[in-house]
Amino acid sequence: MSKKQKNQGGGSTIALNKKAKHDYFIEDRLEAGLVLEGWEVKSMRAGRAQLSESYVLIKRGEAWLFGAHISPLTTASTHINPDPSRTRKLLLHGAELSKLIGLVERRGYTVVPLALYWKRGRAKLEIGLAKGKKAHDKRAVEKERDWQREKARVLKTG
User: Fold this and answer.
1) Tell me: the pLDDT tens digits for 47-94?
2) Which stretches are tagged as biased composition: Basic and acidic residues (predicted)?
3) Structural contact between residues 59 and 92, judged by C-beta atoms closer than 8 angstroms
4) Which of 39, 56, 86, 111 has the fewest Cβ atoms within 10 angstroms?
5) What is the rounded radius of gyration, in angstroms, for the C-alpha atoms of the chain?
6) For the chain, which residues make up each domain, given as ranges?
């Protein structure tokens, strides 16, 4: 078994949503499965997925991923018509789904996709239960991060 084959079945990351940590306070994280078509799996194995403009909505008791872009491969079959940004259903347990519905509808939380990765040969999406940050919150977090970095630098040299 080659090194490349081992990584595909393991926990290798396909795509990250780095902007989510900047724009939201992530309070809870959940793992969801995805309903995918064959060409999407092949494209994701080639690393052609993006989560930057994607979001999760809950409609009629089901969770859906909107705006995730999976670019089709040029070698895809000719008898299919791939839609790179189609809506994809998320697979969650009933208890997880009811928890998300309650928090989103009653408490004003948002559900954001954080990471797309492989787990035991299956594509998984890490979603986060989040509250939006205001501009002053973003500045405070950045100031705290800079202070921690400076403190570590001083302690390392001194």
Assistant:
1) 888 888 888 888 888 899 998 888 888 876 667 778 788 889 999 999
2) 138-158
3) no
4) 86
5) 19
6) 3-133
Beta-sheet pairing, 62-66 with 24-34? unpaired
- Mean pLDDT for 3-18 is 62
Token readout for 58 is 């809950």
pTM: 0.73
CB-count exposure of residue 100 (10 Å: 0-12, 13-18, 19+): buried
The backbone region for 77, taken as left when phi is positive above 0, alpha when psi lies in -120 to 50, beta otherwise, is beta
Amino acid at 137: D
> What CATH number matches the domain at 3-133, 3.40.50.300, 3.40.50.12160, 2.40.50.100, 2.40.280.10?
2.40.280.10
